[in-house]
Amino acid sequence: MITTVVVPTMGRPSLHVLLEALVRQTRTVDVPVILVDDRPEPDAIPVDVATYPLDITVVRTGGGGPARARNIGWRHARTPWVSFLDDDVLPDDDWYALLLDDLAEADDEVAGVEGRLTVPLPTDRRSTDWERGTAGLETSRWITADMSYRRDELSAVGGFDERFPRAFREDADLALRLGAERGRVVTGRRHVTHPVRPADDLASLRQQRGNADDYLMRAIHGPGWQQRADAPVGRRWRHVAITGSLALATVGLLARRRGLAVLGASAWLAGTAEFALRRILPGPRDRAEVRRMLVTSAAIPAAATWHSVRGAMRHRGAAPWRGLPELVLLDRDGTLVEDVPYNGDPAQVRPLPGVREALDRLRREGIRLVVVSNQSGVGRGLIDRTQVEAVNERVEALLGPFEGFYYCPHAAEDGCDCRKPQPGLLKQALADTGVRPDRAVMIGDIGSDLGAAEAAGMAGILVPTDVTLPGEVAAAPLSAGSLGQAVDLVQRGEW
After folding, report:
1. Which part of the chain is the Glycosyltransferase 2-like domain (predicted)?
2. Given Cys at both, which of 9, 119, 230, 377 links 383, Cβ 3.0 to 4.6 Å?
3. Do 16 and 163 fall into the same domain?
4. 94 is an active site residue
5. Are residues 364 and 296 in the same domain?
6. Mean per-residue pLDDT of the chain
7. How is the chain split among helix, strand and coil, in percent rounded to 5?
């Protein structure tokens, strides 16, 4: 399989239309489809996925926005490419066949391949302001409504920046980090239709929150980001001038300076009228649209200015996005379960408090988990491999699935390269999972765990216990009081 199709969804009715379109493709969709349910408190997915002849997996996020939903989706994928589709697009019947062609034709330097998109507008009347705004998607670059990326490229940069809380700028940010302006993201031949979603009267006013995201883009990519992303500058400074005029009128009114108040009010009225006319004239000019444009045109400049100021303050000095690790490696005894020396009895396996819950948090993020442990009892003849594997099976039964168990059977005096603090076990886990060292983190309870991590080129987090030496705690670059607290660090990107 060359790709996985990832569909973030808020449970909109359009999801059914999308799945039906995938079913009727001229070439059968024979790759995994991951539906990422991003509703904060989801019930059942709004369609019965079992009725569709597709390999569908439903993953729930508990909320967090489209960037996080897409990250969880691609981390659950195991294919070379990940193809993102929004839940409100309609793929052409040959979309999947052309998708496979697009990916097969991409050379090694290509990080992503975008599809072509059309927004159908009414033919029997002029388009509304909302419809014209949606139609701008046709000329927008690198939008994730239909976008495929190499999975290893996503992993290398930490995926989508989750500091973008809405479906705005997060796609351009990722494309720029992957070198899209250098030709590393190309346009394919496949095509989707993006119908205009219904919107209420204040939808355009809520869109002004995106002005804050523009300042995150500036902090990350520098003042020339709009040229690099081919993004329009818009009316921000005009909005600032109109808002300043309103403030001037307010000050004049409060200070009882009539001339100042009249000057500010006149400038505000002129600016607002010009803005409203620019939105009204191209549209249908019916009563509802005119009313909507007048109300929102009066409010948008102040809202845009407020969100710009908020974004400039919040994102000043923002660091590059790191994201979550793709792989977490865990020591077994003393980190996951109580340390019973040379344990070969599954009945003596007792998980430490809170460990299952912490591991499940990582699993929900799509982070892969493996166990790496020293089992010198095998080399000393105290236990055998069958007993070690029986204990591992019990650990998995109690704590949930792991992608692998790696253990060193040698005694300390054997001089092997797999006994921690040697990096052999960790390197083998990286090779088997295909994860880069800088996208992995090791969690353990003693210094040899972190020594192995450093030797393997990955981050390490120490979770000290009674057997951890004071010098090991002092030398640890990062430590936590429990596995749950270590997972907190991972989820905050502080690893």
Report:
1. 4-113
2. 377
3. yes
4. no
5. no
6. 96
7. 45, 15, 40
